[in-house]
Amino acid sequence: MRKVITYTLLIVFSLLFIAPLFWAVTTALKSPQELYLFPPKWIPSEWKFSNFAEAWNIQPFNLFLKNTVTVTALSTLGQLISCTLVAYGFARFQFKGRDFLFLIVLATMMIPWEVTMIPQYMEFNYLGWINTLKPLIVPSWFGSAYYIFLLRQFILTLPRELDEAATIDGASKLTVLFRIIVPLMGPSLILVGVFQVMSCWNDYLGPLIFLNDQTKYTLTLGLSQFKGMYGVDMQSIMAITCLISIPPLAIFFFAQRYIVGGIATTGIKG
Amino acid sequence: MKKRISLIVLATTMMVSVLSACGGSGGSTDTAGQGESGSNGTKTLRFATWDTGDTLKIEQDIAKKFEAEHPGTKVQVEAYADGFDQKMAAGFGAGNPPDVMYMWDFPTYHQSLEPLDSFAEKDKDLNIDDFYKGLFNYGKIDGKLYGIPAGFTTRVVYYNKKLFDTAGIPYPKDGWTWSEFQDIAQKLTDKSKKQYGFGVRAENDTYDLQGLVWSNGGSFISPDGKTIDGYMNSKETAESIQMFGDMVKNGSAVLTGGKGQQSGDDIFKAGKIAMWESGIWPLESFKKAGIDVGTVEMPAFPGKPLKGVLAESALSIAKDSKQKDLAWEFIKFYVSDESIKMRVADLPVRQSVVTELKKDQDPLYKPYYTMLERSDNTPAFLLNPKWNEVNRQLSAAVEAVMHGSNAQDVLNQAVKDSERYMK
Amino acid sequence: MAQTYLQNTREQTAALKLLRKRRWGGAAPYLFIFPWIFGFVVFTLGPLLFSLIISFFDWPIVGKVTFIGIDNYVEMFTDDPMFWKSLSVTLKFAVLFVPLNIVLALALAMLLNQKVRGSAIFRTAFYLPSVISGVALAMIWSWVYSGEYGILNYFLSLFGIQGPDWLNDTKWSLVAMVIASLWGQGSMMLIFLAGLKGIPKDLYESASIDGAGKIRQFFSVTIPMITPTILFNLITSIIAAFQQLTLALLLTGGGPMKSTYFYAMYMYENAFKYYKMGYSAANAWFMFLIVLVLTFLVFKSSEAWVFYEGEMKKNPQKKLKARKGGQTG
Lengths: 270, 423, 329
What we know:
The structure holds three protein chains of three kinds.
Chain A: H1 2-29, H2 50-58, H3 61-92, H4 98-109, H5 113-127, H6 134-137, H7 145-157, H8 160-168, H9 173-202, H10 205-210, H11 219-224, H12 234-269
Chain B: H1 2-33, E1 43-49, H2 53-69, E2 73-79, H3 84-93, E3 100-103, H4 106-109, H5 117-122, E4 140-141, E5 144-145, E6 148-154, E7 156-160, H6 161-167, H7 178-187, E8 196-201, H8 206-215, H9 235-249, E9 253-256, H10 264-269, E10 273-278, H11 283-288, E11 293-296, E12 310-317, H12 324-334, H13 337-342, H14 351-357, H15 366-373, H16 387-402, H17 407-418
Helix pairs in contact in B: 8-9, 16-17
Chain C: H1 2-8, H2 13-22, H3 28-54, E1 57-58, E2 66-67, H4 71-78, H5 81-112, H6 119-127, H7 134-145, H8 151-158, H9 173-183, H10 186-197, H11 201-209, H12 214-225, H13 227-243, H14 246-252, H15 263-272, H16 277-305, H17 318-328
Antiparallel strand pairs in C: 1-2
Helix pairs in contact in C: 3-16, 5-9, 5-10, 5-13, 5-15, 7-14, 11-12, 13-16, 15-16
């Protein structure tokens, strides 16, 4: 009985979460005459797979893909390294001003970008980074509050005795971090990786503000090219959305079992 | 342990030096280099547009053509689509705007734009007289010209021929009135089929409503731009806006979504509204959706002259641009016969092109041009520098009318709330 | 487990004490957090101070900049109905969204934490909305919510229910926004799931030996063990609620009748629609302070209810102490 309820709930919620995407896929496949019908036509009478290729080729999406992959890969790598170091520093040491500094870390999450956007633009302009991918990559190498906070919370749940024992054995702090803590953090690091990939992949404002030349554009900027001031090409938006959702979805699919499989097996037995 | 710590120090110093290296080298070449001649002698001209899709594609083609005719020049088309306003704010705010850009909001930006009078006067190639009269007024602030018209649209009524045929109602003709319009809307409404005669926007751009208001002899602001009391809340103004509200109330019009929602365009494409009022923008997509669409002039109020409102896009040059002459060349090229003919999605701004393409003979396009002849009033935002603030109140009032409030009451209130911006 | 370490290393207790002392002082911690400090100073602090400074200026995007002292702040509090309106919309949204978001994410995570076949598929399905970019998301919701022609009301009509015109009805629009925001709970669910998986199985075993039923186990084992995760999700939810902008911007534009005019949207419009950069910065600093105070309160309170296994001694929770005692003893 319990199983039945569990499965029913799982399926119902899955449908709730999938249905709109299903609608996006069918919208992408419809012929223009069927797009706006009401009641909605769930299954197109003609499957126009060519819509995908057409939308993809209107703008140089291959190039956008390359840019997006570059930004996502480099910034994710940067976040993982920097946030691990910083989170460890906050979680495992007591030092003067720690709580105050951590509050500032948290505070940076609350800064609305509306106000920092223009000064930041000025700064990057001064550095000559406007219209390059650098503003989208370099700051990631210095940590981001959300991930630092997340990783700190994870490290705090690890028994302190683990690293203390290692320290007694003469290991340095950095060794403790990489030999003891990081292996235990596996799942949370993958979690951070996944989050960073998602947010980077779908970031719109950063690329919009800091990039000018189309050859530097990312996928979301390409996607927004279908949404003008005076009209929206819904079909192309849906087609491109479906296509560009595939890589992050695949990444998630492969990553999720490490996220949930993780601590229980590695952490506790270790 | 000491060794490890020194490793961290090393790593961080490396990061710092990489960072500063990026900054140092970039600072001198990238920004300053943009626009001025690079090492290989090519000049890059930055051109920002809000257009998307096929229109953007055409603009890119025009840019390529310009490059071909001007060796050593690269036109960097920067397509910001929906993010155009933000991008302009960042660019102008930080002193790094594009050289040439699409522009409509002259009251806000004119201080950062290059006056174009001297360019236009000394350049006979531009052939100003060939432009439709009145288009230039929209790009003028305090008598100075800041933008060259590149495209425009007036507003017309679209109708779905199939729905008219099914109901046995003759197609509307130019010179019709709002009472005829309301009659037809009533007849074409069939709630059981979720079909409506007309669609009313829940959130109107008050700019677009001006044609309606002027046609009833009203206006939002006095001609000198100093007074709104007695204009924005005049009987005529209230009446014309109330009419849309009433149509929603009596069920002959459906309320269509605000900004990002399923729009009237979409519902028209679904064949669920018989008549829809808009500019040229959705015409192509109506055809593509398989709607047999007709266009007709806006209806008039009985005994009063019909007025239209013009939405214009112009090209401007940034004051900070380092290559204004090249920018001017590009603008000139952009509004030349050749380019205008390429830009099929816009309405041509040159009379010669219209005559040549016989656009004013085409029944589908003719109403835009007859409406153009009726668009000689000056829109409110050009009359008062604080219009942005006043409009905040006005928009809220108009929205309230569409949701059932009494137009006269809310407009009186809006005038009261706006008075402080009028001093 | 940690306890085994303790038992094996009883003789090292003295050394441990020494070590705990050494946690204080030394340059090591500063070196670890150095990347963040550097990034903060270079990329955040400057722009932040700049925004503080311009909040005392009349700063149009183009044109003359004038120092006006605290006038922006005065205007905001005394002479701008939209300020109060948007603040109340955001507070309403936060009050609805934050608890619902946490409860839903936790419930879904617990659902996924069951042993079921195809769990990978279900997890991916639940996370799916988080993968879709904002532009498309808003468009999808507009089709779901449309009054006459919407998918949601179409479904409701199949059951004979006449749904409201969600986004054009001031009574429903904010609710609709909350639902749409909840739909993207994927990240939070995932964090909870990772937290749930981190709870050692033996805790449940010993709890059930003690005679605790499922519900008691939930409150005496599950909840205490994931309090660090709850703290994280609570704080990030509050921040997210206050920064909610994308949906309003892309879907309702703040309407109808300003019923979804979030504070973030108000700030955004002041900056990019009315080009009052200084005023917008003043708005932002006010919001910044509110969120900061809220976070600070939550954080301070967390010492009383958040349990970190790594910092056991600081925690006064009786239940947990009892559990620990039961286990080691």
